[in-house]
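Quick one, T. Sequence first:
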Amino acid sequence: MKKIIIIGAGGHSNVIEDTLIELEIFNEIAYLDDNFNNNTKTFFSKTKNILGTTDQIFDKQFRSNFKYAFVAIGDSERRLKLIDQLENLKYEIPIIIHPTAWVSKSASLGIGSIVLSQSTIQTGVKGGKGLIINNSCSIDHDSFLGHGVHIAPGVNIAGSVHIGDRSWIGIGASVIENITIGSDVKIGANAAVISNIPNSVNAIGVPAKIKN
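Structure tokens:
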């Protein structure tokens, strides 16, 4: 039996579970979440198989039961920290690609990344660990996405764009070719990025401007 543990049992985990069911890779999907109460065995969700809190990943017996693990947490910094811990503990961390997505054979994505339905990743794209590429996104040729980048639904990124670690591109945003977006940046919904964006800022609007 092929089993996977998903860390985080919120809304994003529902999307991951649906994708895994479509892929028919795993026979069992279970969860760890720090909102789980080990004393009362209760959790905010009654529909998921919650086995405990995230500290379970360090337990030797638990690790022997779950070879595969995936992090379903939206916060990029925490997601990356957990991926690093899982990697150090020798869990196998898959790259999950929805069957309706298209990823070029020349593209490369890091462990713990997910590409959701109807998205396209073109030739030469390179990405780090823990990427979230949401539904109906387009990442054009030779672009680079740093560790923990989150691309919201309906985003269009043109060719040779560079996006730094942990940045978030809001729903429906567009980025023209040859743009550099720094690390820890938030781009607002439906923004049009036509000039470079430095580290650690928010940018909104058409064209996108830094919000003070």
